[in-house]
Design a protein that fits this description.
Layout lengths: L1 E4 L4 E4 L1 E8 L2 E9 L7 E12 L2 E13 L8 E8 L4 E8 L4 E7 L8 E3 L3 E5 L5 E4 L7 E4 L2 E5 L4 E9 L2 E2 L3 E8 L2 E8 L8 E8 L5 E4 L9 E5 L2 E8 L5 E8 L6 E8 L7 E8 L6 E4 L9 E5 L2 E8 L5 E8 L7 E8 L8 E8 L5 E3 L5 E2 L3 E5 L2 E8 L5 E8 L6 E8 L1 E2 L5 E8 L5 E3 L10 E5 L3 E7 L5 E7 L2 E2 L4 E2 L3 E2 L10 E5 L3 E10 L5 E11 L2 E4 L2 E2 L2 E2 L3 E10 L5 E10 L2
Parallel strand pairs: 10-17, 38-44, 46-54
Antiparallel strand pairs: 1-2, 1-9, 3-4, 4-5, 5-6, 6-7, 7-8, 8-9, 11-14, 12-13, 12-15, 15-16, 15-17, 18-19, 19-21, 20-22, 22-23, 24-25, 25-27, 26-28, 28-29, 30-31, 31-34, 32-33, 32-35, 35-36, 37-39, 39-41, 40-42, 42-43, 45-47, 47-50, 48-49, 48-53, 51-52, 53-54
């Protein structure tokens, strides 16, 4: 927009400038309305234009088109400054005919990015002055006013923006916003094999490049192949150059190496020549078999073999191979049952057991009835009785031995008599009566066992008596040695109620928390009852008598008494004594 002074006003002439730059040289054209009336215009060809550090000048010399009402405009020269942040040209235009105009132009240009993820809220920002946004080039659907416009994009779309200078709106400029929606077009998975972490995921994707890939939220990489994977389900994420992701779960399966399900070596115990029968399982695809370095074949049966050791091999379709040494025995090889270690049903147990020790060729099997065989030589939970134990090798050679599993009852305490300890004494004792497979041994510390059935010098506490018989069966019983402290009831032999605060009453003291006075009577020398109590629960420190009789101070002298007390456990004690009253 050019504007300059006239006699009575400042006049504005709309201007459109088109420039191309090559180094410091600028070429282009300028279109300008001569007046505010739309039909009148002039178009110049720009020459002699140059720019240096955002400051330049251009010559408006050659008129390429013109439609003016009166006289033709004269040539002009324009000095300007370029402000890149605003995309603005501001400067002074001087005409040869003496007129000077100020030129202020803004270029509308998208400053924000033009690619967004599908469904993303785009914040679109353009340069220019007094910007208006439209949905169509006819400007029939207005969207927004201002340099910044926020909208949710779901597909590639075109917006049209204009700018307004002094009530003149420029032609609409298209702003194309693209939607980046990457797509995974192909996935190839190589599963693990031979129990190794050798899985591979290869991905092919399309979208706005460059495309990058990630597994399980790891770092994104430009290479679309992930080797050395272990078996699991992975989260594969592909991201476009605009940062738009697409994810998919990819499972790498585990393919284990095969294992031998059954291997049997026959020998001369059952046939004239030996052989091997093998069956494998697992792996991937059909399994094949071979002996030593011979070719692989579908069958795992190998017959007419000489005695000796062979390397049996099995392989799946992926080449995963397993092997084991198998011995084909000769006539002199036989099963030998060397020993049967018996565990009798001791200590009153319901079951016993045994372990078979044998030698032979191949994997031996064991049986308690000659019909049902197992591979373990250890037999548990066997009911006591007589049995015949069998052992055989894969070729059918067999040996047996008869055994007996006995039963021994546990020792038993018949009676334990406790002798309580005296108060604060270590003179408790126990006497034991028991039966069992003798001789029986006893202990009260589980360390030192003796044949004695009486233990003296025991402290008052919970004791445990341990007993063991000749079969090693242990039995224990806990018992309680009590402390007898009935004498721990204290009554003074004299007291003096003279109000000096010392020894004022006949006081009853004891160690327990409370006790019950069942009967208490105190007599004078003539047998008269001076004080009494009955059926009363008291605490230690209770005053049995205060030295008064019928409200008067009793005479000094000796007063006999009888006291019956009951303890918390129901035991009673009768105390008969004499107390001396002093004045």
């Amino acid at each position: 927009m050019d504007f300059g002074p006239r006699p009575d006003e400042v006049t504005f002439w709309p201007t459109a400038l088109e420039l191309t730059q090559n180094g410091s040289t600028i070429n282009g054209s300028c279109f300008q309305q001569v007046t505010s009336q739309t039909p009148y215009f002039v178009e110049w060809k720009i020459s002699g234009a140059s720019v240096n550090s955002n400051v330049g000048q251009m010559q408006f010399a050659e008129i390429t088109a013109m439609n003016v009402a009166q006289s033709a405009p004269c040539d002009s020269k324009y000095s300007f400054t370029y402000y890149p942040d605003e995309e603005r040209l501001l400067g002074m235009r001087e005409f040869e005919c003496g007129m000077k105009l100020t030129m202020d132009l803004y270029r509308m240009r998208l400053k924000s990015r033009d690619i967004y993820c599908k469904g993303e809220t785009a914040t679109l920002q353009v340069t220019g002055k007094d910007i208006r946004w439209y949905a169509d080039p006819q400007k029939s659907k207005w969207l927004h006013t201002g340099n910044t416009y926020e909208t949710k994009v779901t597909q590639t779309d075109t917006f049209y923006v204009t700018q307004i200078f002094h009530a003149v709106e420029t032609p609409p400029v298209p702003v194309i916003i693209k939607v980046s929606e990457p797509s995974i077009t192909n996935l190839q998975v190589t599963h693990t094999s031979c129990d190794q972490d050798n899985g591979i995921i290869s991905v092919t994707a399309t979208g706005d490049g460059p495309m990058t890939d990630s597994l399980d939220n790891g770092m994104f990489q430009s290479v679309s192949v992930f080797p050395g994977l272990y078996a699991k389900t992975y989260q594969l994420t592909v991201k476009s150059g605009a940062g738009c992701p697409v994810s998919r779960e990819v499972t790498v399966e585990k393919r284990t190496r095969p294992t031998f399900l059954m291997v049997v070596a026959t020998n001369s115990c059952t046939s004239e020549s030996g052989g091997i029968l093998a069956q494998a399982q697992g792996g991937y695809g059909p399994l094949t078999y071979a002996l030593d370095n011979q070719p692989f074949r579908e069958s795992g049966v190998f017959s007419d073999l000489q005695s000796g050791e062979y390397m049996l091999r099995a392989k799946d379709s992926l080449g995963c191979e397993i092997s084991m040494a198998v011995k084909v025995a000769d006539k002199n090889d036989a099963v030998v049952l060397q020993e049967v270690e018996i565990e009798h049903a001791r200590c009153g147990a319901e079951f016993g057991g045994f372990t078979v020790i044998a030698t032979g060729t191949g994997e031996l099997q064991y049986s308690l009835d000659g019909e049902n065989y197992v591979t373990s030589p250890n037999f548990s939970y066997v009911t006591p009785g007589a049995y015949e134990v069998f052992v055989k090798d894969p070729g059918g050679c067999m040996a047996s031995k008869k055994i007996v599993i006995g039963k021994a009852p546990a020792p038993e305490f018949l009676n334990i008599i406790e002798y309580n300890a005296s108060c604060k004494g270590n003179d408790g004792a126990i006497s034991i009566h028991a039966i069992g497979n003798g001789p029986l041994l006893f202990s009260i510390d589980a360390i030192n066992f003796v044949p004695d059935t009486v233990f003296n010098g025991l402290s008052p506490l919970v004791q445990t008596v341990y007993m063991v018989d000749t079969a090693g069966c242990h039995v224990a019983r806990s018992l309680y040695i009590r402390e007898i402290c009935l004498e721990n009831v204290y009554i003074p032999t004299a007291f003096s109620p003279d109000f000096d605060g010392k020894n004022e009453v006949m006081e009853l003291k004891f160690a327990t928390g409370k006790l019950r006075i069942r009967h208490f009577r105190l007599f004078n020398r003539w047998g008269t009852v001076v004080a009494s109590r009955s059926d009363q629960t008291v605490e230690s420190g209770y005053a049995l008598w205060d030295g008064f009789y019928k409200g008067d101070r009793a005479q000094p002298g000796a007063y006999p008494y009888e006291l019956t007390v009951e303890f918390d456990d129901g035991r009673t004690r009768v105390i008969r004594d004499t107390i001396l009253l002093l004045r």
